[in-house]
């Protein structure tokens, strides 16, 4: 197992390096931040001062060196927009995204296991077809549209929920969670159903039944355990996607997470914050990927052996 | 299944008696705070940055105050921290300051603070927006003959110095002069109570305020990027006021229209063919159906424009009408230019900014179609703010080919001098070309005052339309402010940049 972990860390680290270098280079291709931050009629001297103060007058390699040093010391400099510590801004925003993504995935997995197993238990029944249709619909629902409709129905028309926000009771979680939940939930129901259908038709299930095991034990004790690896892999990928792509939900609901911070930083050419936010996200995704592989390997010995040296 | 889950969760929320949207925070929720929802979080509350809309809308006249304020309706200057002012000669101004005023840290306000604030913001190394935008290249000398008197001397005669000072917020001596401050102290009716970065900003009423006590004991600002959510917050009762909503965001009769002093126009690069031919630039003006755009795209929130400044700004010329929509004339002018050898088929890039105003992309498409009908070859590029600024501000993007830049100009200062110095003179930061004659007219107009000033700038704007034609004006815009039923506030032309909390009251 330690060998497996070492190999996975090494093979996953390369994309991390590419991301770290890529965000630095791409950010600098997006234009001159001086125009955004200086007065419209700034003099050339004011512009030169700005570039000097922020190190943008240095050769690109020097800027890159400073940035890489910052990566190792978690010192990304200050935000151009707010003057605050960039790493601090990224680290403050990140838990909000993780909480949302974590809660979403827990609900999605729990719901999908119940509905997917139920559908797989009676393949081609009305319930199965209904759950197939609804989960397909959920998986293809644009989250932006769903969010706005949710606000219209539950906040404006019915007045049951707040439109947005992050401060308050559990009610502030409902619409962001549902919006984020709908797609992974739809995907996972399909995956659980597929995995369970093949698991339930496997010989060991027949053996278990012939030995007199209860149906609950057959489904949850035998079939689900064997159906778990593909489900967990997909759930892991979906979690990575959530961490990376909660932008729409965070923007609409004013959820102060890392996705919104990244978009704001790109629009504001706030390079320091963008770099810090991307690094925090990339490292988390890196760690999540390792974790997913580990869980997968623990569940399935073939995976452990398949990773090349 | 998702819908079922949605309904179940909704029912769960209702059944468990969660705090519902309507019960919190509007005009007296738990803390009695008025909630205002903005488009974006203020990046800073530094007073010398308050010409940035997102900062000014919170700071100006709420946390800090200037010496003088401009009445957004009449345009007249009114006393605030200065009670009276007069000029001695044509370069020195004397201001008598209000007594008995204290800053929110308890320290008294006097002329030393006023002088300090001016020196901190104008011509300093801080690089303040107010310096560049309002006091461009000004050299000011300040003196404090006594604690209640301030004199300001300009290097050149500046007849609108008091107007300029109405943009300069006063901070106490001791405020950092080497770095901008994020949370300032001022003399305004509200002080910063808690800024929960990313979530909300709360101001509390300052009990030592020298003026009338404002109605709300506290105000909480939150921000949502999506305009339909801001509108929904007002209709659902979560917010008392929502800024920057559009006519299609669903606020219904809670959306209150107001003239926001913004004017949309196309800026034409007259240095590059085919736009270097005045016939082509005139054709662009004739080809655009401004009435149609205002009626169908802006849902009548605006009126066709013939100049860059709206009514109410000194220098607005009431005699200038919007160019008539005359597609036949546009076609004829393009044909005439083509016959004279102008390469009218050269692709022209129409550059617009995402989300600059409601229906901006559709506006660009309508213009593209109209210019195509006139015989020009136009393609659209939609850019974000930073990329758009690369084209908007000097130094401009080089080798961009012929460009039409869709701009929106707001003259919140109320004087056309601020527009002409930016947009019309040959070397203006946002002007691509001009003529020596126009530059001369602008310089002369800048030295005048009163009715003569209004007339001189009115002539400048008419001359631009007739002889230079750098702009194809589209519309003087109107904004929409969402105001909840239990809040009373009358928006005005300054509201976008300065939402005075003291003017907001509960309706009941």
TrEMBL record, chain A:
Keywords annotated in UniProt: Cell membrane, Membrane, Transmembrane, Transmembrane helix, Transport
GO cellular component: plasma membrane
Ranges that cross the membrane: 12-31, 98-121, 142-161, 271-292
Membrane topology: Multi-pass membrane protein
Localization terms from the record: Cell membrane
InterPro entries xrefs: BPD_transp_1_N (IPR045621), MetI-like (IPR000515), MetI-like_sf (IPR035906)
Keyword hit for Transmembrane: yes
Chain ranges of the ABC transmembrane type-1 domain: 94-292
A Pfam family matched in the record: BPD_transp_1_N
Gene3D superfamilies documented for this protein: MetI-like (1.10.3720.10)
Family: Belongs to the binding-protein-dependent transport system permease family.
Protein known as: Peptide/nickel transport system permease protein
Organism: Actinomadura viridis
Lineage, highest ranks first: Bacteria, Bacillati, Actinomycetota, Actinomycetes, Streptosporangiales
From TrEMBL, chain B:
Keywords of the record: Signal
Source superkingdom: Bacteria
Domain Solute-binding protein family: 77-388
UniProt-listed GO biological process terms: peptide transport
InterPro entries, A to Z: SBP_5, SBP_5_dom
GO MF entries: peptide transmembrane transporter activity
Protein name, per record: Peptide/nickel transport system substrate-binding protein
């Amino acid at each position: 197992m330690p060998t497996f972990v070492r190999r996975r860390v090494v093979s996953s680290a390369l994309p991390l390096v590419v991301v770290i270098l890529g965000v630095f280079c791409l950010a600098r291709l997006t234009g001159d931040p001086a125009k955004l931050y200086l007065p419209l009629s700034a003099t050339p001297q004011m512009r030169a001062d700005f570039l000097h103060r922020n190190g943008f007058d240095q050769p690109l390699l020097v800027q890159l060196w400073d940035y890489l040093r910052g990566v190792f010391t978690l010192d990304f400099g200050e935000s151009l927009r707010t003057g605050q510590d960039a790493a601090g801004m990224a680290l403050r925003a990140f838990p909000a995204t993780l909480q949302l993504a974590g809660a979403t995935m827990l609900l999605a997995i729990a719901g999908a296991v119940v509905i997917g197993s139920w559908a797989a238990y009676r393949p081609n029944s009305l319930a199965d077809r209904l759950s197939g249709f609804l989960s397909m619909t959920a998986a293809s629902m644009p989250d932006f549209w769903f969010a706005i409709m949710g606000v219209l129905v539950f906040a404006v028309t019915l007045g049951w929920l707040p439109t947005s926000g992050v401060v308050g009771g559990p009610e502030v979680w409902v619409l962001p969670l549902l919006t984020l939940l709908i797609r992974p939930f739809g995907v996972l129901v399909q995956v659980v159903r597929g995995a369970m259908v093949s698991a339930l038709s496997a010989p060991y299930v027949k053996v278990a039944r012939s030995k007199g095991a209860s149906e609950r034990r057959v489904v949850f004790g035998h079939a689900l355990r064997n159906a778990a690896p593909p489900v967990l892999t997909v759930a892991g990928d979906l979690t990575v996607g959530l961490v990376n792509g909660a932008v729409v939900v965070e923007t609409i609901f004013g959820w102060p997470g890392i996705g919104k911070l990244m978009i704001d930083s790109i629009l504001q050419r706030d390079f320091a914050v963008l770099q810090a936010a991307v690094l925090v996200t990339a490292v988390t995704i890196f760690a999540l990927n390792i974790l997913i592989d580990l869980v997968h390997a623990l569940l399935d010995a073939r995976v452990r052996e398949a990773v090349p040296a | 299944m998702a819908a079922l889950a949605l309904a179940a969760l909704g029912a769960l929320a209702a059944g468990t008696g969660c705090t519902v949207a309507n019960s919190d925070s509007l005009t007296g929720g738990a803390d009695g705070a008025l909630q205002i929802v903005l488009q974006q979080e203020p990046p800073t509350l530094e007073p010398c940055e308050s010409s940035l809309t997102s900062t000014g809308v919170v700071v100006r006249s709420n946390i800090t105050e200037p010496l003088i304020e401009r009445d957004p309706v009449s345009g007249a200057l009114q006393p605030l921290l200065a009670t009276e002012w007069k000029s001695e000669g044509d370069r020195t101004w004397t201001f008598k300051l209000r007594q008995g005023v204290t800053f929110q840290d308890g320290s008294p306000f006097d002329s030393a603070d006023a002088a300090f604030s001016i020196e901190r913001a104008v011509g300093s190394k801080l690089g303040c927006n107010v310096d560049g935008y309002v006091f461009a290249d000004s050299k000011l000398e300040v003196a404090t003959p006594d604690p209640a008197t301030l004199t300001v001397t300009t290097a050149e005669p500046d007849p609108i110095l008091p107007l300029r000072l109405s943009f300069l917020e006063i901070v106490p001596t001791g405020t950092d002069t080497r770095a901008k401050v994020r949370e300032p102290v001022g003399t305004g009716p509200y002080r910063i109570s808690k800024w929960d970065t990313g979530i909300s900003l709360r101001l509390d009423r300052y009990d030592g305020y020298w003026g009338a006590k404002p109605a709300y004991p506290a105000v909480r600002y939150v921000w949502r990027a999506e305009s339909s959510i801001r509108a929904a917050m007002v209709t659902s009762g979560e917010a008392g006021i929502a800024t920057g909503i559009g006519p299609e965001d669903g606020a219904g009769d809670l959306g209150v229209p107001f003239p926001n002093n913004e004017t949309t126009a196309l800026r034409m690069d007259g240095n590059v063919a085919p736009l270097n031919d005045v016939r082509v630039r005139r054709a662009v003006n004739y080809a655009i159906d401004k009435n149609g755009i205002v009626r169908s795209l802006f849902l009548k929130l605006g009126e066709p424009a013939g100049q860059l400044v709206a009514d109410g700004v000194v220098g607005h010329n009431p005699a200038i009408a919007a160019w008539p929509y005359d597609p036949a004339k546009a076609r004829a002018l393009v044909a005439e230019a083509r016959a004279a050898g102008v390469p009218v088929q050269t692709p022209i890039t129409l550059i617009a900014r995402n989300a600059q105003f409601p229906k901006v992309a559709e506006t660009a498409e309508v213009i593209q179609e109209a210019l195509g009908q006139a015989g020009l070859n136009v393609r659209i590029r939609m850019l974000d703010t930073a990329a758009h600024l690369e084209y908007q501000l000097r130094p401009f993007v080089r080798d961009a080919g012929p460009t039409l830049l869709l701009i929106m100009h707001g003259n919140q200062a109320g004087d056309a001098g601020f527009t002409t110095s930016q947009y019309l003179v040959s070397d203006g930061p946002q002007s691509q070309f001009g003529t020596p004659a126009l530059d001369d007219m602008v310089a002369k107009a800048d030295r005048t005052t009163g009715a003569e000033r209004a007339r001189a700038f009115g002539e400048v704007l008419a001359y631009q339309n007739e002889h230079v034609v750098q702009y194809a004006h589209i519309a003087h815009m109107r904004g929409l402010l969402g105001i909840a039923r239990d809040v009373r506030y009358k928006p005005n032309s300054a509201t976008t940049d300065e939402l005075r909390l003291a003017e907001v009251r509960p309706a009941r």
